[in-house]
Amino acid sequence: MILLTRKAEFSASHYYWNEVWSAEENARVFGKCANRNGHGHNYTLEVTVAGDVDAVTGFVVDLKQLKDAIEKEVVSVYDHRHLNLEVPEFRATMPTTENIAVAIWRRLEGKIPRAKLYRVRVYEMPDLFADYTGA
To answer: Tell me: the pLDDT tens digits for 69-123?
Structure first.
């Protein structure tokens, strides 16, 4: 089995807010991230797939197909968007780095020909990342 990782980047804005809490509680827990106008981040996404090398092509997966799946399912949906307001999965789920990784997994699962999704890693630049392995 071979692991193959492809990177992509996107920029998006978001905020953290728990509707059950008061504005004061949201500010206490989430700090600057509780600003309902949002703030932006540059994200780096790594998608790792697993599979066996095809004897004919020498590929685990056609890299163009992997790139196209990431572009269609993630980058075109998330890039330069306000995640809370414009991306359906974050209307009811807080767009933390952890939840973004899970959402991307769900968007990509089953959409990469010949390979099994192995890991999604999302970096909230410059120094935070979350891994999700579908467990």
So the answer is: 999 999 999 999 999 999 999 999 999 999 999 999 999 999 998 899 999 999 9
For the record, the structure tokens of 22 come out as: 């008061």
pTM above 0.90, yes or no: yes
Structural domain of 54:
2-132
Beta bridge partners of 129: 123
Alpha-carbon Rg for the chain, nearest whole angstrom, is: 17
Provide the domain count of the chain.
Answer: 1
For position 61, which CATH number holds? 3.30.479.10
Sheet with 116-124, edge to edge strand ranges: 81-82, 2-14, 39-51, 116-124, 128-132
Active-site residue numbers? 33, 80, 124
